[in-house]
Amino acid sequence: MSRSTRTLRKSLFIPLTARALVLFAWGALLGLPAVARAADANVPASDAETPAQRGYRFLLNKAYIPVAHDQEVFDNLWKVWEEPLRSKAAKATVEERRRMAFSRYGLTEAPDRPGPVAMQYVDAGHGGWSINCLSCHGGKVLGRAMPGLPNSHFAMQTFSDEVRLIKARQGKLTAIELAAAPFPMGNSNGTTNAVMFGVALGFLRDADLNVRVPDAAPEFVHHDMDAPPWWNVKKKTHLYIDGFAPKSHRSLMQFLLVPQNDAAKFREWEKDFKDLYAWIESLEPPKYPFAIDAALADKGRAIFENSCSSCHGTYGEKWTYPNKLVPIEEVGTDRVRLDSLTPAQRQGYEQSWFGQLDEKKVVADPGGYIAPPLDGIWASAPYLHNGSVPTLWHLFHSSERPTVWQRSEDGYDADKVGLEVTTMSELPPTAVESREKRRYFDTRLFGKSAQGHTFPDALDEAEKQAVIEYLKTL
Ligand code: HEC
Ligand code: HEC
Fold first, then answer.
1. For residue 379, which of 388, 392, 369 has the smallest C-alpha distance?
2. Of 27, 227, 234, 334, which cross-links 150 as Cys (Cβ 3.0–4.6 Å)?
3. Most informative mutation of 59, 136, 160 for ligand 1 (most atoms within 8 A of CB)
């Protein structure tokens, strides 16, 4: 998207969004039902749990966010699908339709929780679906669902648009939902505008997290990100791609800032998030499931330690990780995410309840991105913070990165190591509707550039193959 299109889009969105935020805040102050309370009772307890196990149980079973929709809405979503899918769904059984809906929206079964509700939501009772962290932080690779793996399938925008249509038909839509509708959720399936959700929700709070009614909205730089894998959190001192926030259990609670959760709820739920933090810190990366050429990988390790370890650390039992912040000019990847937060916003986080925990300071003006740990990197494609590069091979061959690509649902490219994709230089002419366009990753859109990180280009082809082989072992 060109700069001028973006400005136009912003000028359309900001007044609407500002109004939505104000309405949203008033709704909360006027005492909208705080649905999350009711669901606490549904959490099954078990004896002798470790804090980490308890955290995982909360994640799957405790509703912290008001219900998004009920099962009746979910079961009717197919009625607004495009043809020929809609006719196919009309003839399908309820169970087949549910599978079609899971596939369409990037949802999976929960490996450790039975029932009709996807892993990415909590069953809040009475058929209610309440969104949880796994909507973005629980995905699948090779068809296997994995909590903690980024959900690179999540079609958040399409899902919420279609839920809204069905709720409208069923007379279940609230004025607040309607007002909030213009806030963009994500322009490519598998990535979300999560950072701007944080900015919007944070703006509705004072430093102690009391809900306040703003009279104007901040400037939003809407852009999408690919969530990072949770198993790397344990190596980090600071969170997020710009490494601005000192790691703490409180930082995990930002997603709960919907105005229905008052300041007291944050104090009450803080202990749950200590447990969730313990679970996240206990996660291990998944092992590469195919054969590895050990001799080649060993060659690759030496090259990696020479060319990559200064930023990405070393691996194995005595691992090291430098938490290195690399200036944007040096890494050269898309800078929209970096510029989307102001130093004042980062400082505001530090001065709020989230930042009041310890001595560690926020990095108000990071100027670049943190080189992430590469553990389990085979599983967390696509690559770079915006999810713009589909395979490691493309990351290592910067001039061959596709302009537009589309993934298959569960295919894995074991040669290139990453997503099985179809690549193209333009969107196909059939991609006219927005929901169809979102099935493609278009690197020409704002914030979606696949440029930069050309460090591996310095290696020759044999060295690249060896390092890619080594990366499979991490
Ligand atoms: C709508 C999608 C979405 C939801 C829901 C979400 N996150 Fe995230 N999360 C992201 C994205 C995107 C990032 C990367 C942000 C960045 O780096 O700027 C992120 C980053 C993080 C990180 C930092 C990881 C790192 O390595 O730096 C943690 C920890 C985290 N999220 C925890 C949570 C928890 C806990 C919840 C639920 C209470 C949650 N998230 C809900 C999208 C989401
Ligand atoms: C000067 C520091 C630096 C060097 C040297 C470096 N990288 Fe990186 N690397 C980064 C940064 C910073 C990022 C994050 C960029 C982003 O997401 O925009 C990154 C991202 C990556 C990613 C994607 C991670 C993900 O989760 O999406 C991979 C894979 C990677 N680097 C591999 C390598 C390899 C292999 C080498 C050596 C040939 C290397 N890097 C050398 C700084 C470096």
1. 392
2. 227
3. 136
